[in-house]
Design goal:
Helix content is about 45%, strand content about 25%. It is α+β, with helices and mostly antiparallel strands. Helix 5 runs antiparallel to helix 8 and helix 6 packs across helix 7. The relative contact order is 0.13.
């Protein structure tokens, strides 16, 4: 992807800290954003006022591509940083001109096919895993992109994502700590290399 990004004339790097808004739902799409570092989650507000966490993604990703290809002018869902995130912003018009010229067609098609495949794969995995293991697998994934394996996610956020109560999540966390799968430092979860090995063994059971 690096070589292909070098072909753009107007490109800007922007960094976001954990919890910051990367893209605001309903905002006008002026750029195509390439996630090159870090993890994000996608959230959408429903008409009844409820917030739904649709997906969580790790770099590399292309943000706003689906909306633009479908002729939409606004961001469909909010995008938030799960940890330190780096984005390369390319002007939408320049991107579309290259796409029409055929330069980006193969890259766009490859990305969309992988994106669709991952959504289906993650959906199947979520159904196959019991909720406890699905959450633990999620923490394991996030820890790999976090410095020193430290995870600073709010319990309310994780409980909301997996549609469980915070009380149930606390029960899982206490159980994992007793089994040596995680350790906790104040409000943070820590997953070191030793923990990762034990988690993989636990998930394989």
């Amino acid at each position: 992807m690096d070589k292909f990004l070098e072909s753009f004339e107007d490109i800007k790097r922007v960094e976001f800290s954990e919890g910051e808004v990367v893209l605001e739902e309903g905002s006008k799409i002026k750029t195509i954003d390439f996630l090159i570092e870090g993890n994000i989650y996608i959230s959408r507000n429903l008409k009844d006022g409820k917030r739904v966490i649709a997906n969580n993604l790790e770099a590399p990703q292309i943000l706003s591509l689906i909306e633009v290809l479908n002729g939409e002018d606004e961001v469909m869902s909010g995008v938030f940083a799960l940890n330190k995130v780096a984005i390369l912003k390319v002007q939408k018009d320049e991107f579309l001109n290259k796409l029409r010229g055929g330069e980006l067609r193969d890259i766009a098609l490859e990305y969309l096919s992988k994106f669709s495949y991952n959504i289906i794969k993650n959906s199947i995995e979520y159904e196959e895993y019991e909720v406890e293991k699905a959450i633990l697998k999620y923490y394991l994934k996030i820890s790999k992109g976090s410095e020193l394996g430290i995870i600073n996610l709010k319990n309310a956020f994780v409980a909301d994502m997996f549609r469980i109560s915070e009380r149930t999540l606390y029960r899982y966390l206490n159980s994992w700590e007793e089994k040596g799968l995680i350790s906790r430092k104040k409000r943070s979860i820590v997953i070191c290399d030793t923990n990762r090995k034990k988690i993989c063994e636990f998930l394989d059971k």
